[in-house]
Amino acid sequence: MPFISEAASAIKSRFGFHNLSTSEVAPATVPSPPDLLKSVSRENSSLSLVAASAVRSIGEWEDDADASSGSMAQQQTQSFEFCEDPSFWKDHNVQVIIRIRPLSSSEISLQGHSKCVRQESCQTISWTGHPESRFTFDLVADESVSQEKLFKVAGLPMVDNCIGGYNSCMFAYGQTGSGKTHTVLGDIEGGTRRHSVNCGMTPRVFEYLFSRIQKEKEGRKDENLKFICKCSFLEIYNEQILDLLDPSSSNLQIREDVKKGVHVENLKEIKVTNARDVIQQLIQGASNRKVAATNMNCASSLSHSVFTCIIESKWESQGVTHHRFARLNLVDLAGSERQKSSGAEGERLKEATNINKSLSTLGLVIMNLVSISNGKSLHVPYRDSKLTFLLQDSLGGNSKTIIIANISPSLCCSLETLSTLKFAQRAKFIKNNAIVNEDASGDVIAMRMQIQQLKKEVSHLRNLVNGGAENLDNDTSIISCAGSPGPFKWEGLHGSFSPFVSEKRTSQKKDFKVALVGAFRREKDKDIALKALAAENQAAMQLAKQRQDEIQGLKMRLKSFYEEGEREMMSEQINVLQNKLLEALDWKLMHESDSSAVQKADVDVKAEVLHDPEISNKEPGTPWRSSINEENEFLRMQAIQNKAEIDTLHEKLGFCLEEKEKLERHANDLLTRLEEERSLRDLKKGNTAN
Ligand SMILES: Nc1ncnc2c1ncn2[C@@H]1O[C@H](COP(=O)(O)OP(=O)(O)OP(=O)(O)O)[C@@H](O)[C@H]1O
Questions:
Q1: GO biological process annotations for this chain's record (predicted)?
Q2: What is the mean pLDDT of residues 444-467?
Q3: Whole-prediction pTM value?
Q4: How is the chain split into domains, by residue range?
């Protein structure tokens, strides 16, 4: 599909991105933002990685530290603070950030420094077209926000969330050339932030991840804490999944099962132990992406790339082994404007539409999720595209998700910028339900001992609440409360009464009170959670039953449609009507030729009549001729009616088939959801029991 590459380069050159030939070298004085992944895939020649870094016309960008500070001063009158809210992720699971990139020199030469957006605060931005529209997001990063700053605000908490056992996902959205790859990868060739100020989120995230893992391991030596990190890198192009770490594979399939959840079958996963390993995989993936791009004649901006890292940790405490699991997805989406402005038509448009199917389904998924969060009950078409199917957890599911919507501030991109802002605003309403993915297992004796211990604790605390010092036994017990001030010794009422002992008692009593309050709070929380779970379960069961009834009814209808010959009857009816119509048309044609003969005779007769003064004064129409006309008219009407009936039946048939497909899809979704609900319920039950 060379047209796509052509269209891509046309758009790029319109916005000022000129690919240099391999012989061209970037000016040595300008720090490079090479975005290796993109640059290698944009070039079809076999560039070396080093040469590839010079592919992008880096000299024209205003992001050169000196240039940007100079020109920014001209353009940006006010700069807003860009900093994170440390408590954000406690209460939220979705964060939407707008990133404005600097103007390119081509944009400046086309439209000068005029901009289509005006930042109002660190959270609001106005689109200055007609009518002017104001948008509010979690954060707005202006041109001056550096890669490091963005990482600290968005990337660092994402890693912390993963270490805490939450799935996390970062999407970079925006039109071609708006800075998605700069944000996600940036200059990966330069290594991590120690080596390049332009390296993007991914290298920084992994550098921080491994430093945190090291710290955690050092701080929790006694728990024998272990981490395993596995990476995979894939590309979705034209609704096909390619493994960028194993170019020999192609068109991989997405599977879903209770154990593994949604996953890509046969996708290569590579164990990584440090940031260098990850960068190596990124570079390898980038070079394979180049191969894929050459084979398929595509450019990277037409495909989505998903870099995934699975972080598993395992530790032991009191004979119980804990497992934690988190999936980190870093997604660089295809350029969002492609379909509209690629200029493709006909077959090519169809192809471009297919390429963009993921993106439009993403939009639809988000729209439906927003409607659902507004109380509507809607089907979310996750399975309609590979991207949304694969990342369904990140959209409305079990994940903490960041969407970075990249925009160009130039007037040249005004409409695309508005559409990105609108997309981002809708995404703000997505509600995710992130939970800590943790499991515990251990030898039965250790678990029993823990349960025993907890039972003792509860019974002692109960007694205490009942004011029952008198109920307490004389035994001295060791009580340990999870989250309480630590294990302490219970001496019943039979201690000595020295002032020292009394003081000790008072402090013990205080400890008890604190522990008691904690234990009750925990018990209450668990009670509430249990009740909510039971209610949820009940509702889910009811829903499942309702759905099952619906499915049953629909199955019956389908059965009768297929088995009891309803379908055949309809097809037969259509055939009969079609035959009738054909007959009628034949008959009509036949009579039309007759009537033309009649008309000819009529003309002859008329001529005779004209020449015969005897009959020239009589009526012109004869009864047999008008009866033919009447019959013709009648048949014509009948034919029209028959045609209309056939059309209706066709429509009905089409509708029935569509309904059937929808219902089957719905039934499948429901079964999957039911499975998920059940496993979630079991998991929750397990957690509550622990
Ligand atoms: N915030 C920024 N600061 C400096 N330069 C930037 C910034 N954002 C983007 N750029 C530069 O803009 C150019 C285009 O960015 P990038 O390739 O990341 O766009 P993209 O959205 O990924 O495009 P595509 O959809 O075509 O892949 C690159 O040269 C990049 O270095």
A1: microtubule-based movement
A2: 72
A3: 0.59
A4: 87-440, 506-687
